[in-house]
Amino acid sequence: MGQLGNRPVDEEAVSQQQLAIYRDAEVQLAQVGVPVLLPSDDPHARLYIAAQDGTGNSMFNDKPENWSNVARIYKQVQSLNDRGIQNIAGGYVEGTFTQEGALRTPQRLADGRFGHSFDERVETAYFDLCVQAKEWLLQDPQAKIHVAGVGFSRGAEQTAALERLIEERGIRDPDGIKPERDRDGIIQKIEYPARPPLVPPGKTLQVALLFDPVSTGVEDQERALPKSTLAVFEISAMHERRDLFPDNDHVPSGFSEDRRNFNAGMPGSHSDIGGTYERNGLGILNFNLGVSFLNRLSDQPFLKELPVPTDPSQFVIHRSDQHMHGLYGTDGHDKDGVRDRVQDQSPRPGVQGKDPIDPALDAQVERRAAPAPEHGWTPQDAERRVVPAPSTHSQAMPASYGVDAIFDRLAHGAMARDDAAMNAAVADYMRSPQGHQFQSQVAQTRQAMDAREQQAELEASMLARQQVENARSPQMMRL
């Protein structure tokens, strides 16, 4: 779900055998038949990059060095537009758990655990696409709109839901629509008038790039990739331990659908795949894999890979279960040493995965494999070692104080209408480090509000006194 905190965690150096898995993935990715959606000889082709970030990740609030791979890709798309390239555009939606403001902390915490803003963020991404599609079609009525969804963590789940939405709705006409948005720009309410869509349902060619999808809290959402998704590249973290971060297989491991999809299990934890750590060697390798996939959507590469570090210390696997003061549960991983997996992508009966590719849509595109890559990025060999985190770990808190467990109790209490259980869960949260931080933020906000109220009262008193004095001195008022 992205990087939820900056507290140091232990790191394990990546072995040469693990780096070899990345080199093998490059070779395998080159064998995927990626559809060419933006051929240079087609003046009507357009490519929209729909970027949706992971939980807690925001290119607006995070430092650039902590941006996710999704944010870095979108930034490059923006730079294309700045250079006058008109046939590629994109949109970006922050991840869940990014609401701004101390008074919105409870809403932000609930969103981080349960993904309550899922629908609103997908709707925001969809509307942004509609606006860009309208602009393209005004410039060129023959424009052919294609979509590449790019997402990390729950943003990858939103990417799947977005592509399903495009399949079912088509691309709607946004003319005259003024959606209601919250202070972060996320759409809260929108209504589309009954008029013909810009592109009919089921006619938009799509692909998906998914950085370690995680469906926690949004399991009941419709996330099965549609038949119009012609290729999928999913990167799954091999070393994620947390129970709340199960591996979500939108497509089966390895190749599927006649090498048109590829799900690569890669060394690293969740945010090693997403690219948000300071020691980001693995994040850069995953970024470059994603860029390699996207570049093959055109016969002219449009994104740049990042330089691969030559310093071996940059290549580490982070112990992500130590985030949040080590409160994350790892029971599933502890049983067999393997990350739990999710394969059902829909609330419909039965296990639902990606829909088979539509043959009629597939016939519209040329698919190309790529030349085998040349490897020039292998860092120096280094002994396998465990790198302890700087600073000491806090003493473990009772299990009942675990933030995830607390929110589970809160949810169960709400469903059972058990006020006592809900109050007990809230009380436990308030005793946790996160609860103390929240209370401190609220206290600071109240102090600021009290100071503003006192200042307003003082100014009102002074104004009233001045008015009284003016009333007593009419001669002064005439001056």
Task: Tell me what you see in this structure.
The structure is a single chain. This protein is an alpha/beta fold. The protein has one domain (11-368): 3-Layer(aba) Sandwich (Rossmann fold). The protein has helices at residues 16-30, 69-82, 105-114, 118-139, 154-169, 270-274, 281-295, 323-326, 331-336, 359-362, 403-415, 419-431, 433-472, 474-478, and strands at residues 11-13, 34-35, 45-52, 88-93, 144-152, 180-181, 187-189, 206-211, 229-237, 247-248, 254-256, 261-266, 316-318, 341-342, 367-368, 386-387. The strands form 5 sheets. A 7-stranded mixed sheet has the order 4-3-5-8-9-12-11, sandwiched between helices. Strands 13-1-16 form a 3-stranded antiparallel sheet, with no helix packed on it. The chain has a two-stranded antiparallel ribbon with strand order 2-15. Helix 1 packs parallel to helix 7 and helix 11 runs antiparallel to helix 12 (419-431). The protein is globular. Mean pLDDT is 86; it is low at 1-6, 381-385, 390-401 and 474-479.
